[in-house]
Amino acid sequence: MSQALLAGLARTTAPRTMLRRFLALDAVVTGVNGIAYTAASGPLGRLLGVDSTLLLGLGLFLLGYGAAVGLLASRPAPPGPAVRAVVDANLLWAVLSIAALALWLEPTTVGAVWTVLQALTVAGFAVLQWSSLKTAEGVSR
C-alpha cells in the first residue's frame, strides 16, 4: 500500500502516528463490538442466527482484545512484534470467521452478511496496520 494512501487514510504523514491511529481505530471498533455482543447477546443472537452464549463469549474476548490493542495504540512507538501479533490475530479472526460461516454456523441472512463484512473489516485493519508498520520501520532505520 502506498505511503500517500496510508497518509490520506490516517490523516497524517508521520508513520508512527499512522500506525497508532490504525491500532486505535481497531481498538474502538473491536471494543464497540465487544460491548454489543456482551450486553445484547440474546437479541443480537436472534437477529444474526448465532447462539447467544457464543456471542457472549466472543464479546468478552473482544473486550479484552480491544483493550490490549488500545493499550498498544497508546504507546508512542508500538513495538513491531506486538503489532505483528495484532496483524496475525486479525488475519486469523478473518479466516476463522469465513471458515465458521462455511463449515458450522447457520446464520440468518443478516448474520451471514454481518460475518462477511466484519471479516473484511478486520482483514482491512490487518493490511493497514501491517503497511503502516512497514512504513514506520523503514523511516526508523
UniProtKB/TrEMBL annotation:
Looking at the UniProt entry, the stretches that span the membrane are 21-40, 52-73, 85-105, 111-131
Key words of the record: Membrane, Transmembrane, Transmembrane helix
Superkingdom of origin organism: Bacteria
The answer, when asked if Transmembrane is one of the entry's keywords, is: yes
Protein name from the UniProt record? Integral membrane protein
Keyword Transmembrane annotated: yes
